[in-house]
Design a protein that fits this description.
By secondary structure, the protein is of the alpha/beta class. The chain contains nine helices and twelve strands. The chain has a five-stranded parallel sheet with strand order 2-1-3-4-5, with helices on both faces. This is XRE family transcriptional regulator. InterPro entries: CheY-like_superfamily (IPR011006), OmpR/PhoB-type_DNA-bd (IPR001867), Sig_transdc_resp-reg_C-effctor (IPR016032), Sig_transdc_resp-reg_receiver (IPR001789), WalR-like (IPR039420), WH-like_DNA-bd_sf (IPR036388). It comes from Vibrio coralliilyticus.
Amino acid sequence: MINTILVEDDSRLAGNIIDFLELESITCDYANNGETALNLIEKNQYQVIILDVNLPRLDGFSVCERLRTQGVAVPIIMLTARSQLEDKLTGFKVGTDDYLAKPFAMAELVARTKALATRKSGQLFRFKAGNIVFCTQENQAYIDNQPIKLLPTSLIILEHLIRAYPHSITRQSLNLAIWEDRAPNSNSLKVHIHYLRKALSQHSSSVCVVSVNKRGFKLQDTDSESQ
């Protein structure tokens, strides 16, 4: 059983998140503002903190920074309505471990929560799928311990796929991660997925990018694809 706390001021969204997490055997305490969250975190032990950025009284960045200053090392997933690079960099600077832009698929939140809860300290910034390792601190992907060169957009797509692995991520989530709400056209994501597939194949990746019901993508073992 994984014990978490959700800090989110949107009560309707919070209720949906809590219901979904509990279906996955993840218990979840709740706070609707930063000050209440700090009090609960001080009194209880959590394996993961799910923290919204835009909070009343004390925003998510301030909560995260205060926890790290106090020596709290519990992994933190930060939720935000925007996926701007500046916000992501601010989050990582104050000590967040992961970042998820709204709207997101509940299955992706579950996958990231479980991944952070089961990883030991020092492994939080490395995500693995098959023979691929993605290091968020270096913003670099490796296949069989050898660095691979990818286009910036392909790198963003791979990072989100490997964070969600073995689950899928929606097209909408990928579009938001890359372009926010300014995707050039409906074929842009398809083109970048093509380039990523080609690059992984050229470097003998043991996983490949597959389409899931035309709604999203995921990483899958190449052996499974051929069956």
